Amino acid sequence: MASTHGTHGAAEVLVASNRGPVSYVAAQDGGLDARRGGGGLVSALSVVEDKLWVCAALGDGDREAVRRGITEPGVRMLDIDADVHADAYNGIANSVLWFVHHMLYQTPFEPSFGPEFRRRWAAYETYNRAFARALAEEAADGATVVVQDYHLALVPGMLRELRADLRIGHFTHTPWAPVDYFRMLPDDIAEQLLRGMLGADRLAFLTRRWADAFTECCTRIIGGTSGTRIGVHGLGADADFLRERAHRPDVEERLGALRDQVGEGRKVVVRVDRTELSKNIVRGLRAYELLLETRPRWREKVVHVAFAYPSRQDLAVYRDYTAEVARVAESINSRFGTPGWTPVVLHVKDDFARSLAAYRLADVALVNPIRDGMNLVAKEVPVVSDRGCALVLSREAGAYEELADDALVVNPYDATGTCEALGAALDMAEDERAERTKRLAAAGTALPPGRWFLEQLEALRG
Ligand code: G6P
Protein backbone atom coordinates (compact mmCIF):
# COMPACT_ATOMS: atom_id res chain seq x y z
CA MET A 1 0.00 0.00 0.00
CA ALA A 2 1.29 3.49 -0.82
CA SER A 3 2.42 5.42 2.22
CA THR A 4 0.65 8.68 2.86
CA HIS A 5 2.26 12.11 2.87
CA GLY A 6 4.10 12.83 6.09
CA THR A 7 4.91 9.24 6.92
CA HIS A 8 7.72 8.96 4.42
CA GLY A 9 11.33 8.36 5.47
CA ALA A 10 14.10 10.93 5.57
CA ALA A 11 16.59 9.77 2.92
CA GLU A 12 17.00 12.12 -0.06
CA VAL A 13 19.41 9.91 -2.00
CA LEU A 14 19.17 6.13 -1.83
CA VAL A 15 21.21 3.41 -3.45
CA ALA A 16 20.17 -0.23 -3.63
CA SER A 17 22.45 -3.13 -4.45
CA ASN A 18 22.75 -6.78 -3.51
CA ARG A 19 26.29 -6.38 -2.17
CA GLY A 20 26.67 -3.46 0.19
CA PRO A 21 29.66 -1.42 1.39
CA VAL A 22 30.20 -3.42 4.56
CA SER A 23 30.11 -7.04 5.71
CA TYR A 24 30.39 -8.63 9.13
CA VAL A 25 32.41 -11.64 10.24
CA ALA A 26 32.32 -13.39 13.60
CA ALA A 27 35.25 -12.36 15.79
CA GLN A 28 36.97 -14.67 18.31
CA ASP A 29 35.55 -12.76 21.28
CA GLY A 30 31.97 -13.45 20.12
CA GLY A 31 31.60 -9.98 18.62
CA LEU A 32 31.34 -9.05 14.95
CA ASP A 33 34.06 -7.37 12.90
CA ALA A 34 32.89 -4.93 10.24
CA ARG A 35 34.82 -5.10 6.97
CA ARG A 36 34.39 -2.20 4.61
CA GLY A 37 34.46 -3.10 0.93
CA GLY A 38 36.83 -1.26 -1.40
CA GLY A 39 35.01 -1.81 -4.69
CA GLY A 40 34.37 0.74 -7.43
CA LEU A 41 30.82 1.41 -6.31
CA VAL A 42 31.96 2.25 -2.77
CA SER A 43 34.40 4.89 -3.99
CA ALA A 44 31.91 6.25 -6.55
CA LEU A 45 29.19 6.75 -3.98
CA SER A 46 31.48 8.37 -1.42
CA VAL A 47 30.99 11.70 -3.27
CA VAL A 48 27.49 11.94 -1.81
CA GLU A 49 27.84 12.00 1.96
CA ASP A 50 24.24 12.05 2.95
CA LYS A 51 22.76 8.95 1.41
CA LEU A 52 21.23 5.66 2.46
CA TRP A 53 22.59 2.44 1.01
CA VAL A 54 20.13 -0.45 1.10
CA CYS A 55 21.77 -3.85 0.61
CA ALA A 56 21.24 -7.53 1.44
CA ALA A 57 22.70 -9.40 4.41
CA LEU A 58 24.92 -11.89 2.56
CA GLY A 59 26.33 -14.28 5.12
CA ASP A 60 25.82 -15.49 8.68
CA GLY A 61 27.86 -12.58 10.05
CA ASP A 62 25.68 -10.02 8.26
CA ARG A 63 22.48 -11.72 9.45
CA GLU A 64 23.73 -11.79 13.00
CA ALA A 65 24.58 -8.08 12.79
CA VAL A 66 21.03 -7.27 11.65
CA ARG A 67 19.59 -9.38 14.47
CA ARG A 68 21.78 -7.66 17.06
CA GLY A 69 20.87 -4.26 15.65
CA ILE A 70 24.46 -3.49 14.63
CA THR A 71 24.49 -0.97 11.80
CA GLU A 72 26.83 1.37 9.99
CA PRO A 73 25.69 4.94 9.49
CA GLY A 74 24.05 5.31 6.09
CA VAL A 75 23.58 1.58 5.55
CA ARG A 76 20.44 -0.52 5.91
CA MET A 77 21.05 -4.22 5.55
CA LEU A 78 18.04 -6.39 4.75
CA ASP A 79 17.85 -9.73 6.50
CA ILE A 80 16.07 -11.59 3.71
CA ASP A 81 15.37 -15.26 4.46
CA ALA A 82 18.58 -17.16 3.65
CA ASP A 83 16.87 -19.67 1.33
CA VAL A 84 15.03 -16.94 -0.55
CA HIS A 85 18.28 -15.03 -0.95
CA ALA A 86 20.15 -18.15 -2.13
CA ASP A 87 17.46 -18.92 -4.73
CA ALA A 88 17.38 -15.31 -5.96
CA TYR A 89 21.13 -14.62 -5.94
CA ASN A 90 22.61 -18.04 -6.82
CA GLY A 91 19.61 -19.60 -8.54
CA ILE A 92 18.48 -16.68 -10.72
CA ALA A 93 20.91 -13.75 -10.72
CA ASN A 94 24.19 -15.66 -11.05
CA SER A 95 23.04 -18.78 -12.89
CA VAL A 96 20.42 -17.39 -15.24
CA LEU A 97 20.62 -13.62 -15.71
CA TRP A 98 24.43 -13.49 -15.58
CA PHE A 99 24.56 -16.34 -18.11
CA VAL A 100 22.06 -14.69 -20.46
CA HIS A 101 23.74 -11.27 -20.49
CA HIS A 102 27.22 -12.76 -20.89
CA MET A 103 25.98 -15.31 -23.45
CA LEU A 104 27.50 -18.18 -21.48
CA TYR A 105 24.88 -20.82 -22.09
CA GLN A 106 26.25 -23.69 -24.08
CA THR A 107 26.27 -27.45 -23.74
CA PRO A 108 26.53 -28.77 -21.05
CA PHE A 109 25.18 -25.69 -19.29
CA GLU A 110 21.93 -25.56 -21.22
CA PRO A 111 19.13 -23.56 -19.71
CA SER A 112 16.20 -25.56 -18.49
CA PHE A 113 13.33 -23.40 -17.40
CA GLY A 114 11.25 -26.03 -15.62
CA PRO A 115 9.45 -26.04 -12.25
CA GLU A 116 12.67 -25.54 -10.29
CA PHE A 117 13.37 -22.37 -12.26
CA ARG A 118 9.82 -21.13 -11.54
CA ARG A 119 10.27 -21.76 -7.83
CA ARG A 120 13.50 -19.77 -7.83
CA TRP A 121 11.92 -17.04 -9.88
CA ALA A 122 9.29 -16.62 -7.16
CA ALA A 123 12.17 -16.15 -4.69
CA TYR A 124 13.71 -13.55 -7.02
CA GLU A 125 10.39 -11.66 -6.93
CA THR A 126 10.22 -11.88 -3.13
CA TYR A 127 13.78 -10.65 -2.82
CA ASN A 128 13.16 -7.72 -5.18
CA ARG A 129 9.97 -6.87 -3.28
CA ALA A 130 11.88 -6.73 0.02
CA PHE A 131 14.15 -4.08 -1.51
CA ALA A 132 11.23 -2.13 -2.98
CA ARG A 133 9.47 -2.06 0.41
CA ALA A 134 12.56 -0.96 2.32
CA LEU A 135 13.26 1.81 -0.20
CA ALA A 136 9.62 2.95 -0.05
CA GLU A 137 9.87 3.16 3.75
CA GLU A 138 13.15 5.06 3.84
CA ALA A 139 12.76 7.55 0.98
CA ALA A 140 11.79 11.16 1.67
CA ASP A 141 9.17 12.87 -0.50
CA GLY A 142 10.48 13.16 -4.06
CA ALA A 143 13.77 11.44 -3.15
CA THR A 144 16.18 10.04 -5.72
CA VAL A 145 16.78 6.28 -5.78
CA VAL A 146 19.43 4.54 -7.85
CA VAL A 147 19.02 0.77 -8.11
CA GLN A 148 22.01 -1.31 -9.17
CA ASP A 149 22.28 -4.23 -11.51
CA TYR A 150 20.61 -7.46 -12.65
CA HIS A 151 19.94 -8.69 -9.11
CA LEU A 152 17.34 -5.95 -8.71
CA ALA A 153 15.76 -5.65 -12.16
CA LEU A 154 12.19 -5.78 -10.82
CA VAL A 155 12.70 -3.15 -8.13
CA PRO A 156 11.99 -0.02 -10.25
CA GLY A 157 8.50 -1.25 -11.24
CA MET A 158 7.67 -2.49 -7.73
CA LEU A 159 8.89 0.73 -6.12
CA ARG A 160 6.99 2.88 -8.61
CA GLU A 161 3.75 1.18 -7.52
CA LEU A 162 4.51 1.97 -3.87
CA ARG A 163 5.84 5.49 -4.34
CA ALA A 164 4.87 7.41 -7.47
CA ASP A 165 6.63 10.55 -6.13
CA LEU A 166 10.19 9.16 -6.34
CA ARG A 167 12.77 9.66 -9.05
CA ILE A 168 13.93 6.17 -9.82
CA GLY A 169 17.07 5.25 -11.75
CA HIS A 170 18.55 1.86 -12.51
CA PHE A 171 22.15 1.18 -13.52
CA THR A 172 23.23 -2.02 -15.29
CA HIS A 173 26.87 -3.04 -14.69
CA THR A 174 26.78 -6.05 -17.02
CA PRO A 175 26.39 -6.23 -20.78
CA TRP A 176 22.84 -6.56 -22.08
CA ALA A 177 22.08 -9.62 -24.20
CA PRO A 178 21.18 -9.27 -27.89
CA VAL A 179 17.45 -9.72 -28.38
CA ASP A 180 17.63 -13.18 -30.01
CA TYR A 181 19.66 -14.47 -27.08
CA PHE A 182 17.57 -12.67 -24.44
CA ARG A 183 14.49 -14.38 -25.85
CA MET A 184 15.87 -17.68 -24.62
CA LEU A 185 14.15 -16.69 -21.35
CA PRO A 186 10.50 -17.75 -21.09
CA ASP A 187 8.34 -15.04 -22.70
CA ASP A 188 6.53 -14.02 -19.52
CA ILE A 189 9.84 -13.72 -17.63
CA ALA A 190 11.50 -11.68 -20.41
CA GLU A 191 8.51 -9.31 -20.39
CA GLN A 192 8.45 -9.05 -16.61
CA LEU A 193 12.15 -8.16 -16.52
CA LEU A 194 11.83 -5.45 -19.15
CA ARG A 195 8.69 -3.96 -17.62
CA GLY A 196 10.29 -4.09 -14.17
CA MET A 197 13.26 -2.06 -15.40
CA LEU A 198 11.00 0.36 -17.30
CA GLY A 199 9.37 1.29 -14.00
CA ALA A 200 12.40 3.61 -13.65
CA ASP A 201 12.42 7.20 -14.89
CA ARG A 202 15.83 6.60 -16.35
CA LEU A 203 17.92 3.53 -17.09
CA ALA A 204 21.65 3.69 -17.59
CA PHE A 205 24.30 1.37 -19.03
CA LEU A 206 28.07 1.30 -19.30
CA THR A 207 28.22 1.57 -23.10
CA ARG A 208 26.02 2.56 -26.02
CA ARG A 209 26.16 -1.06 -27.22
CA TRP A 210 24.45 -2.42 -24.09
CA ALA A 211 21.91 0.42 -24.04
CA ASP A 212 21.00 -0.25 -27.68
CA ALA A 213 20.64 -3.99 -26.99
CA PHE A 214 18.21 -3.22 -24.17
CA THR A 215 16.19 -0.84 -26.36
CA GLU A 216 16.04 -3.46 -29.10
CA CYS A 217 14.71 -6.03 -26.59
CA CYS A 218 11.99 -3.60 -25.54
CA THR A 219 11.05 -2.76 -29.12
CA ARG A 220 10.81 -6.37 -30.22
CA ILE A 221 9.31 -7.91 -27.09
CA ILE A 222 6.97 -5.29 -25.62
CA GLY A 223 6.73 -2.72 -28.40
CA GLY A 224 8.91 0.08 -26.96
CA THR A 225 10.47 1.71 -23.91
CA SER A 226 7.28 3.52 -22.72
CA GLY A 227 8.95 6.89 -22.38
CA THR A 228 11.67 5.74 -20.00
CA ARG A 229 14.87 7.68 -20.65
CA ILE A 230 18.00 5.68 -21.40
CA GLY A 231 21.54 6.94 -20.90
CA VAL A 232 25.15 5.82 -20.98
CA HIS A 233 27.83 6.50 -18.36
CA GLY A 234 31.15 4.78 -19.03
CA LEU A 235 32.64 4.25 -15.60
CA GLY A 236 36.37 5.04 -15.58
CA ALA A 237 39.24 4.30 -13.23
CA ASP A 238 40.07 6.57 -10.30
CA ALA A 239 43.53 7.92 -11.26
CA ASP A 240 44.28 9.88 -8.06
CA PHE A 241 43.33 7.03 -5.77
CA LEU A 242 45.20 4.39 -7.79
CA ARG A 243 48.43 6.39 -8.16
CA GLU A 244 48.58 7.06 -4.44
CA ARG A 245 47.51 3.57 -3.36
CA ALA A 246 49.96 1.85 -5.73
CA HIS A 247 52.98 3.39 -3.94
CA ARG A 248 52.13 2.51 -0.37
CA PRO A 249 54.50 0.23 1.56
CA ASP A 250 52.27 -2.87 1.33
CA VAL A 251 52.34 -2.63 -2.49
CA GLU A 252 56.12 -2.03 -2.55
CA GLU A 253 56.60 -5.12 -0.41
CA ARG A 254 54.51 -7.29 -2.73
CA LEU A 255 56.26 -5.83 -5.76
CA GLY A 256 59.57 -7.06 -4.33
CA ALA A 257 58.15 -10.52 -3.72
CA LEU A 258 56.67 -10.72 -7.24
CA ARG A 259 59.98 -9.62 -8.79
CA ASP A 260 61.70 -12.45 -6.96
CA GLN A 261 59.12 -14.95 -8.18
CA VAL A 262 59.38 -13.77 -11.79
CA GLY A 263 63.18 -13.68 -11.92
CA GLU A 264 65.64 -11.14 -13.29
CA GLY A 265 65.24 -9.84 -16.86
CA ARG A 266 62.02 -11.65 -17.72
CA LYS A 267 58.96 -10.04 -19.28
CA VAL A 268 55.67 -10.25 -17.45
CA VAL A 269 52.17 -10.88 -18.80
CA VAL A 270 49.59 -10.02 -16.13
CA ARG A 271 45.90 -10.79 -15.74
CA VAL A 272 43.65 -10.05 -12.75
CA ASP A 273 40.08 -11.35 -12.62
CA ARG A 274 37.39 -12.79 -10.48
CA THR A 275 37.30 -16.44 -11.52
CA GLU A 276 34.21 -16.94 -13.57
CA LEU A 277 33.38 -18.09 -17.03
CA SER A 278 32.89 -14.74 -18.74
CA LYS A 279 36.50 -13.80 -17.94
CA ASN A 280 37.78 -16.49 -20.32
CA ILE A 281 40.81 -17.32 -18.18
CA VAL A 282 41.29 -20.85 -19.54
CA ARG A 283 41.42 -19.68 -23.15
CA GLY A 284 43.86 -16.96 -22.10
CA LEU A 285 46.12 -19.61 -20.57
CA ARG A 286 45.84 -21.69 -23.74
CA ALA A 287 46.87 -18.69 -25.83
CA TYR A 288 49.93 -18.23 -23.61
CA GLU A 289 50.73 -21.93 -23.89
CA LEU A 290 50.52 -21.62 -27.66
CA LEU A 291 52.99 -18.73 -27.48
CA LEU A 292 55.51 -20.90 -25.63
CA GLU A 293 54.90 -23.75 -28.07
CA THR A 294 55.17 -21.79 -31.32
CA ARG A 295 57.71 -19.13 -30.30
CA PRO A 296 60.38 -21.02 -28.36
CA ARG A 297 62.51 -17.88 -28.03
CA TRP A 298 60.10 -16.79 -25.26
CA ARG A 299 60.75 -19.86 -23.12
CA GLU A 300 62.56 -18.88 -19.90
CA LYS A 301 62.10 -15.23 -20.96
CA VAL A 302 58.50 -14.54 -19.93
CA VAL A 303 56.26 -15.26 -16.94
CA HIS A 304 52.48 -15.13 -16.91
CA VAL A 305 51.33 -13.74 -13.55
CA ALA A 306 47.67 -14.71 -13.29
CA PHE A 307 45.53 -13.62 -10.36
CA ALA A 308 42.23 -15.47 -10.46
CA TYR A 309 40.18 -14.73 -7.37
CA PRO A 310 37.47 -17.32 -6.60
CA SER A 311 33.96 -15.94 -6.89
CA ARG A 312 30.43 -17.28 -6.26
CA GLN A 313 31.75 -20.60 -5.01
CA ASP A 314 28.30 -21.75 -3.84
CA LEU A 315 27.64 -22.67 -7.46
CA ALA A 316 29.17 -25.83 -8.95
CA VAL A 317 29.73 -24.27 -12.36
CA TYR A 318 31.91 -21.52 -10.83
CA ARG A 319 33.75 -24.04 -8.62
CA ASP A 320 34.46 -26.32 -11.57
CA TYR A 321 35.80 -23.40 -13.56
CA THR A 322 38.08 -22.38 -10.69
CA ALA A 323 39.48 -25.95 -10.60
CA GLU A 324 39.92 -25.96 -14.39
CA VAL A 325 41.97 -22.74 -14.25
CA ALA A 326 44.31 -24.31 -11.67
CA ARG A 327 44.60 -27.52 -13.72
CA VAL A 328 45.50 -25.73 -16.94
CA ALA A 329 48.07 -23.51 -15.18
CA GLU A 330 49.70 -26.60 -13.65
CA SER A 331 49.75 -28.46 -16.94
CA ILE A 332 51.56 -25.54 -18.64
CA ASN A 333 54.10 -25.46 -15.82
CA SER A 334 54.75 -29.19 -16.00
CA ARG A 335 55.01 -29.09 -19.78
CA PHE A 336 57.39 -26.12 -20.11
CA GLY A 337 58.75 -25.30 -16.64
CA THR A 338 62.45 -25.68 -15.83
CA PRO A 339 64.23 -25.68 -12.45
CA GLY A 340 64.77 -21.91 -12.65
CA TRP A 341 61.57 -20.86 -14.43
CA THR A 342 57.88 -21.19 -13.64
CA PRO A 343 55.95 -20.15 -16.77
CA VAL A 344 52.64 -19.43 -14.96
CA VAL A 345 52.46 -17.93 -11.48
CA LEU A 346 48.85 -18.37 -10.37
CA HIS A 347 47.55 -16.70 -7.22
CA VAL A 348 43.98 -17.24 -6.05
CA LYS A 349 43.84 -15.33 -2.76
CA ASP A 350 42.24 -11.93 -3.29
CA ASP A 351 44.81 -9.25 -2.45
CA PHE A 352 44.29 -5.76 -3.85
CA ALA A 353 47.79 -4.55 -2.89
CA ARG A 354 49.33 -7.48 -4.79
CA SER A 355 47.12 -6.76 -7.82
CA LEU A 356 48.47 -3.19 -7.87
CA ALA A 357 52.02 -4.52 -7.59
CA ALA A 358 51.36 -6.75 -10.62
CA TYR A 359 49.97 -3.77 -12.56
CA ARG A 360 53.22 -1.90 -11.88
CA LEU A 361 55.35 -4.80 -13.02
CA ALA A 362 53.37 -5.73 -16.14
CA ASP A 363 54.85 -5.54 -19.64
CA VAL A 364 51.59 -6.87 -21.07
CA ALA A 365 48.10 -6.93 -19.57
CA LEU A 366 45.75 -9.63 -20.86
CA VAL A 367 42.05 -8.74 -20.66
CA ASN A 368 40.17 -11.22 -22.86
CA PRO A 369 36.60 -11.66 -21.54
CA ILE A 370 33.97 -13.38 -23.65
CA ARG A 371 31.76 -10.44 -22.67
CA ASP A 372 32.13 -7.86 -19.94
CA GLY A 373 30.05 -4.82 -18.96
CA MET A 374 33.19 -2.64 -18.81
CA ASN A 375 36.29 -4.29 -17.26
CA LEU A 376 38.09 -1.84 -15.03
CA VAL A 377 41.37 -3.80 -15.00
CA ALA A 378 41.90 -2.65 -18.61
CA LYS A 379 41.54 0.95 -17.43
CA GLU A 380 43.52 0.62 -14.20
CA VAL A 381 46.72 -1.04 -15.47
CA PRO A 382 47.76 1.86 -17.76
CA VAL A 383 47.34 4.33 -14.87
CA VAL A 384 49.56 2.38 -12.47
CA SER A 385 52.09 0.77 -14.84
CA ASP A 386 55.69 1.81 -14.05
CA ARG A 387 57.23 1.48 -17.50
CA GLY A 388 54.24 1.42 -19.82
CA CYS A 389 52.28 -1.72 -20.54
CA ALA A 390 50.85 -3.13 -23.76
CA LEU A 391 47.16 -4.00 -23.45
CA VAL A 392 45.69 -7.08 -25.15
CA LEU A 393 41.96 -6.42 -25.03
CA SER A 394 38.85 -8.35 -26.04
CA ARG A 395 36.57 -6.54 -28.42
CA GLU A 396 33.67 -7.85 -26.32
CA ALA A 397 34.61 -5.85 -23.20
CA GLY A 398 32.79 -2.56 -22.68
CA ALA A 399 36.20 -0.92 -22.23
CA TYR A 400 36.96 -1.71 -25.89
CA GLU A 401 34.72 1.17 -26.96
CA GLU A 402 37.04 3.67 -25.25
CA LEU A 403 40.41 1.89 -25.51
CA ALA A 404 40.31 0.28 -28.98
CA ASP A 405 42.76 2.72 -30.63
CA ASP A 406 45.72 1.89 -28.40
CA ALA A 407 45.01 -1.69 -27.37
CA LEU A 408 45.84 -4.86 -29.31
CA VAL A 409 42.30 -6.02 -29.93
CA VAL A 410 41.35 -9.71 -29.95
CA ASN A 411 38.37 -11.92 -30.62
CA PRO A 412 38.11 -13.68 -27.24
CA TYR A 413 37.18 -17.05 -28.75
CA ASP A 414 40.25 -17.07 -30.97
CA ALA A 415 43.16 -18.57 -29.01
CA THR A 416 45.47 -18.34 -32.06
CA GLY A 417 44.67 -14.65 -32.58
CA THR A 418 45.15 -14.02 -28.86
CA CYS A 419 48.52 -15.79 -28.99
CA GLU A 420 49.58 -13.56 -31.91
CA ALA A 421 48.48 -10.43 -30.01
CA LEU A 422 50.48 -11.57 -26.96
CA GLY A 423 53.53 -12.01 -29.20
CA ALA A 424 53.09 -8.54 -30.74
CA ALA A 425 52.56 -7.02 -27.29
CA LEU A 426 55.77 -8.59 -25.95
CA ASP A 427 57.69 -7.33 -29.00
CA MET A 428 56.30 -3.79 -28.87
CA ALA A 429 59.04 -1.12 -28.82
CA GLU A 430 59.38 0.68 -25.49
CA ASP A 431 58.63 4.18 -26.78
CA GLU A 432 55.50 3.01 -28.61
CA ARG A 433 54.38 1.16 -25.50
CA ALA A 434 54.89 4.26 -23.35
CA GLU A 435 52.97 6.48 -25.80
CA ARG A 436 50.07 4.07 -26.01
CA THR A 437 49.96 3.67 -22.23
CA LYS A 438 49.67 7.44 -21.78
CA ARG A 439 46.71 7.61 -24.14
CA LEU A 440 45.08 4.52 -22.59
CA ALA A 441 45.42 6.04 -19.12
CA ALA A 442 43.82 9.31 -20.30
CA ALA A 443 40.92 7.52 -22.00
CA GLY A 444 40.42 5.10 -19.11
CA THR A 445 40.15 7.83 -16.48
CA ALA A 446 37.94 10.25 -18.44
CA LEU A 447 34.96 9.61 -16.16
CA PRO A 448 36.19 8.83 -12.64
CA PRO A 449 33.82 7.03 -10.25
CA GLY A 450 32.64 10.09 -8.31
CA ARG A 451 31.75 12.05 -11.45
CA TRP A 452 30.19 8.92 -12.94
CA PHE A 453 27.73 8.81 -10.05
CA LEU A 454 27.06 12.58 -9.92
CA GLU A 455 26.36 12.60 -13.68
CA GLN A 456 23.69 9.95 -13.16
CA LEU A 457 22.07 11.86 -10.31
CA GLU A 458 21.98 15.07 -12.36
CA ALA A 459 20.55 13.31 -15.39
CA LEU A 460 17.94 11.60 -13.26
CA ARG A 461 16.83 14.88 -11.68
CA GLY A 462 17.09 16.86 -14.94
C1 G6P B 1 29.78 -7.89 -11.22
C2 G6P B 1 28.38 -7.38 -10.94
C3 G6P B 1 28.30 -6.77 -9.54
C4 G6P B 1 28.83 -7.77 -8.53
C5 G6P B 1 30.24 -8.19 -8.88
C6 G6P B 1 30.81 -9.23 -7.91
O1 G6P B 1 30.66 -6.84 -11.36
O2 G6P B 1 27.99 -6.45 -11.93
O3 G6P B 1 26.97 -6.42 -9.26
O4 G6P B 1 28.78 -7.24 -7.23
O5 G6P B 1 30.23 -8.75 -10.19
O6 G6P B 1 30.00 -10.36 -7.87
P1 G6P B 1 29.33 -10.85 -6.51
O7 G6P B 1 28.39 -11.93 -6.94
O8 G6P B 1 30.48 -11.37 -5.69
O9 G6P B 1 28.67 -9.67 -5.87
UniProtKB/TrEMBL annotation:
<comment type="similarity">
    <text>Belongs to the glycosyltransferase 20 family.</text>
</comment>
<protein>
    <submittedName>
        <fullName>Trehalose-6-phosphate synthase</fullName>
    </submittedName>
</protein>
<dbReference type="Pfam" id="PF00982">
    <property type="entry name" value="Glyco_transf_20"/>
</dbReference>
<dbReference type="InterPro" id="IPR001830">
    <property type="entry name" value="Glyco_trans_20"/>
</dbReference>
